[in-house]
């Protein structure tokens, strides 16, 4: 289980997160909703060790990982698909995927490579193509595939739907569901509440850096007006 407890983060005088606590059960798919600037990316970046917490804790299966370097956090089993995908445009699809396995130096990663390729047929067909030649949806699949090459226990995914056509977004989320069914715990940040409610089993709403609502999918489905109000829709 991934557990975040009373996490606060500051950028200078801006408090981006205030006493945020969330739990993601092993094998679950949890979504964090929130408007622009609510602190969603900051939450994922702090779990990944890219941003330092002012106070609070992050624990994976009961072991504190707060303050560890990002590379060590990947090694402990948490991989991050960043907002904007962050794929390397001038490297091939294969090279991009292999970069995801950099923390596993010395291990045979070919079974994972084949497994990831099997999960993303559109990418498999473009194995030798350069990153920039891929469509937005394919780049997003590549970014997820790269994270999976770290053989994570937990996958963090930031705004996967950004800039993608609705039909492609549904494909990307269907893939996440497939990832979860392989036993990987998934935590997604999403502005598209309807979409998140379809796939997540538990959701949180962040507003101005605080958790203002949380509950299982069924509760959210009954409170769409409230969710919309929090998201400013
Ligand atoms: P978005 O959907 O726009 O990415 P978000 O919910 O992910 O929004 P964050 O990006 O986490 O929100 O930002 C939370 C708050 O922290 C905002 O007020 C933002 O302006 C501020 N912030 C984020 N990154 C930095 C930074 N590097 N330096 C200063 N302030 C920052």
List the helices and strands and how they pair.
Layout (H helix, E strand, L loop, with lengths): L1 E10 L2 E11 L4 E5 L6 H8 L7 E6 L2 E2 L5 H7 L1 E4 L11 H7 L10 H10 L1 H4 L11 H13 L5 E5 L7 H16 L3 E6 L2 H7 L2 E6 L2 E7 H6 L1 H8 L2
Parallel strand pairs: 3-8, 3-9, 6-7, 7-8
Antiparallel strand pairs: 1-2, 1-4, 4-5, 9-10
Helix pairs in contact: 3-6, 6-7
The chain binds adenosine-5'-triphosphate.
Oligomerization category of the chains in this entry:
single chain
Report how far apart the termini are. 32 Å
- Total of DSSP H or I helical runs spanning 4+ residues: 10
Query: pLDDT under 50 segments (min length 5)?
Result: none
| Nearest-integer average pLDDT | 93
Summed up, the domain count is: 1
Proportion of residues in helical segments? 25-40%
Question: SS-based structural class?
Answer: alpha/beta
The CATH C-level name is: Alpha Beta
Rg, rounded, reads: 17 Å
How many individual β-strands?
A: 10
Beta-strand residue fraction: 25-35%
With strands numbered from the N-terminus, the spatial order across the biggest sheet is: 6-7-8-3-9-10
N-to-C SSE series?
EEEHEEHEHHHHEHEHEEHH
Question: Compounds present?
Answer: adenosine-5'-triphosphate
Q: What form results from the Cα inertia axes?
A: globular
């Amino acid at each position: 289980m991934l557990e975040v407890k009373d996490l606060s983060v500051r950028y200078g005088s801006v408090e981006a997160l205030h006493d945020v606590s969330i739990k993601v059960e092993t094998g679950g798919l949890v979504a964090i909703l929130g408007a622009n600037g609510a602190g969603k990316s900051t939450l994922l970046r702090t779990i990944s060790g890219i941003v330092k917490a002012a106070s609070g804790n992050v624990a994976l299966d009961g072991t504190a990982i707060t303050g560890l370097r990002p590379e060590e956090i990947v090694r402990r089993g948490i991989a991050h698909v960043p907002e904007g995908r962050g794929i390397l445009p001038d490297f091939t699809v294969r090279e991009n995927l292999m970069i995801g396995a950099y923390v596993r130096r010395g291990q045979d990663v070919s079974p994972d490579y084949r497994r990831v390729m099997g999960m993303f047929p559109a990418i498999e067909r473009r194995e030798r193509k350069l990153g920039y030649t891929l469509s937005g949806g394919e780049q997003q699949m590549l970014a997820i595939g790269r994270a999976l090459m770290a053989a994570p226990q937990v996958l963090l995914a930031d705004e996967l739907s950004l800039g993608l056509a609705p039909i492609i977004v549904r494909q990307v989320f269907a893939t996440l569901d497939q990832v979860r069914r392989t036993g990987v715990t998934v935590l997604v940040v999403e502005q598209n509440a309807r979409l998140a409610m379809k796939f997540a089993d538990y959701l949180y709403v962040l507003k101005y850096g605080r958790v203002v609502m949380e509950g299982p999918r069924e509760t959210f489905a009954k409170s769409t007006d409230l969710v919309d109000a929090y998201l400013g829709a």
